[in-house]
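Case 231 in the screening queue. Each case pairs one protein sequence with one candidate compound; here the compound is zinc ion. For every case the pipeline is the same: read the inputs, emit a complex structure as tokens, and attach any notable structural observations.

Predict complex for case 231.
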Amino acid sequence: MKHSALFLILLLFALPLFGEGKFVVIIDPGHGGNNIGAVSGELVEKDLTLDLAKRVGELFRKRPYKNLKLLYTRQQDVSFPIKKRVTFISETEPDLVVSLHFNSQKVLTTNRGFEIYYPSDFLNTDAKNAAFYYDRANRSFLYAQIFQDVYAKRNIEKVWKLPFNMVSQRENLMIFDDTRSPSLLLEIAYLTSPEDRACIENPEFLDDIATYIHDAIAAVLIYNKNLKTEK
Ligand SMILES: [Zn+2]
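Case 231 output:
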């Protein structure tokens, strides 16, 4: 009896540990509710980002990864102010944040293509956590490179003629503020570009981009798992 009670106590202490070791990813569909984001004709950014996030989620339901825990900042058309998103991300401390957006140009319609942004540590003045922010910038860059790699492997540029424009550091994006997690912000395509619009309006495009994001997240997961087994 004593032994089983002891076992029960040990089990209770050990239980929270079973949840650990999972790679936590937050998918952040940009905008929502009153904050509609970019608009061009019928295309509205807040709807496209949510649609894309749902497709990515559906793919992970079909092809799940045991070590992956997927969370969302929103799963409906609701307003979720950026400060609250940052707080949610800071409190959750995921291993990766993937923020989804669609771009637009103010006057011209010449800009087009897919872009990835990741946080910089240039403006960080928090000396106590300098190493942490340096690591976040490096890790984010590494994951951005994995995303770039999968973009090439999945032939998105050739199939959709959607150029991969850049991977660059940004220090002035709120979603990167105060969050200690490696983060990527994807600008999928320009709503204002006629060529990009033609892609978005094709029903197969979002499916293809969702598969790409699924595969890129899986590649990051596999990369981290490999790191763990190397140790
Ligand atoms: Zn946006």
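Case 231 observations:
- The two ends are 40 Å apart (CA to CA).
- The chain is about 50% helix and 20% strand.
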